[in-house]
Write a structure and sequence with these properties.
By secondary structure, the protein is α/β, with parallel strands linked by helices. Helix content is 35%, strand content 30%.
């Protein structure tokens, strides 16, 4: 059975222009965009834009482990994350899961596997508003990164992998001052502890 929705009186943002008119959706896909007056749900001049794609968000991890030594129900955590994603206009999200753990996180390898399984199960059950895929954040300097990658890579929702190195003077922390501000502030380390932290991460890298 065909399901059709028409929304009219909208500012529709297209690739090359904005039109005032109506959009027809048939079975979940855009069937037609027309200018002028037609019958349908009146959007009162609101703006319609294509959904955003989020390629890298760590938020599913922070919903699952909201504070030290706390594990939330994984499905409830995932649905809370999904609600925020959908409310932000994101229709496709690549949930970033850490593989290769360096001892500086509460998460464990089995946590990433559980989250990956939950994302897959929730999508299959139609419990999420956005389309969720998995982005594996591979901590390349950690000894177990390949084993942890192999444990999740077979999940059918894995679509993206990135190579991460969180040593000083890498990526967004090309300035040691910025690195110190972020990590020493976040972890409340003394100067001596911070220096040891940097030495260890550089050696691993």
């Amino acid at each position: 059975m065909t399901h059709e929705t028409v929304m009219r009186n909208a500012r529709i943002v297209l690739r090359d222009r904005i039109v005032h008119g109506a959009i027809q959706i048939r079975d979940g896909r855009i069937a037609d965009i027309s200018e002028g007056a037609v019958h349908g749900e009146d959007l009162g001049g609101d703006t319609l834009v294509a959904g955003c794609v989020e390629l890298h968000t760590d938020h599913v991890e922070s919903h699952f482990v909201p504070r030290p030594k706390v594990r939330w129900n994984i499905m409830a955590a995932l649905q809370a994350h999904d609600a925020q994603i959908a409310a932000s206009g994101i229709t496709t999200v690549f949930d970033a899961l850490r593989v290769g753990l360096d001892g500086d996180t509460e998460l464990k390898g089995e946590d990433a596997r559980e989250m990956a399984g939950a994302i897959d199960a929730a999508m299959d059950a139609g419990r999420l508003r956005a389309d969720h895929y998995i982005h594996l954040r591979c901590e390349v300097s950690v000894p177990d990164v390949v084993d942890e990658f192999d444990a999740i890579a077979g999940n059918g929702r894995v679509r993206l992998a990135s190579l991460m190195d969180h040593a000083p003077l890498q990526r967004q922390f090309v300035s040691l001052d910025a690195y110190k501000t972020y990590y020493q502030g976040k972890r409340r380390m003394s100067d001596a502890d911070f220096n040891r932290f940097c030495e260890r991460r550089l050696a691993e890298s």
